[in-house]
Amino acid sequence: MDRPILARLNEMRRRRQAAILVSDLSGGPDRLIVEGDVLEGPLAEAVSSAFRSGRSSAVEIDGQSLFLNVHLPPPRIVVIGAVHISQVLARMAALADFDVTIIDPRTAFATPERFEGIDLIADWPVDALKERPLDSYMALVAVTHDPKIDDEPIIQALRTDCFYVGALGSRKTHAGRMERLKRAGLTEAELARIHAPIGLPIGAASPAEIAVAILAEIIGSLRGRDVSSPKGGMP
């Protein structure tokens, strides 16, 4: 790999942007493709599939043997609310190779004893996210039922293009949430990206079942996301 490509790849990593290093196995020059680059033909299809799966592989394109070395930012789930669902979701998400952060200003809930080994922030989300901003390789899960805690991170998640935004609550609760977010200036297209009721519709009832439904929906959103437009990483 030549030095300019290596420097650019390292910059993509720093900014949490996805990239694929395309190597010509016959000895031709390497090429770096960043998620959102405009491509056409069979290479575009192979690259889109690789970005979605996150898997590196060898492919044959127009008689060329290429190796697609995929570099994705580690996907992270940011959970707003240190509730029972969050306890189960954090453990399951770690098994599925997601980094997890729990944020909740309610110190009675956000305790190390309840979230042993989990990245836990006992602070208001608006303050916590100033230090650790959201990006397009993060999923936002809001489960407190408290607008004072949930609404602002939902707004930030939609405006920073998080690949998944989900919010717990009944249809009535969500209708009220939608009205508040409209008043905050969000568009209909942005609001349509909120998964609510949260999780796949599997009839989940217990905290563990709801966590399963949420994680499955997050995985589906990650693997099925739009990779055709540029994604802004961390500055």
UniProtKB/TrEMBL annotation:
<feature type="domain" description="XdhC Rossmann">
    <location>
        <begin position="77"/>
        <end position="218"/>
    </location>
</feature>
<protein>
    <submittedName>
        <fullName>XdhC family protein</fullName>
    </submittedName>
</protein>
<dbReference type="InterPro" id="IPR052698">
    <property type="entry name" value="MoCofactor_Util/Proc"/>
</dbReference>
<dbReference type="Pfam" id="PF13478">
    <property type="entry name" value="XdhC_C"/>
</dbReference>
<dbReference type="InterPro" id="IPR027051">
    <property type="entry name" value="XdhC_Rossmann_dom"/>
</dbReference>
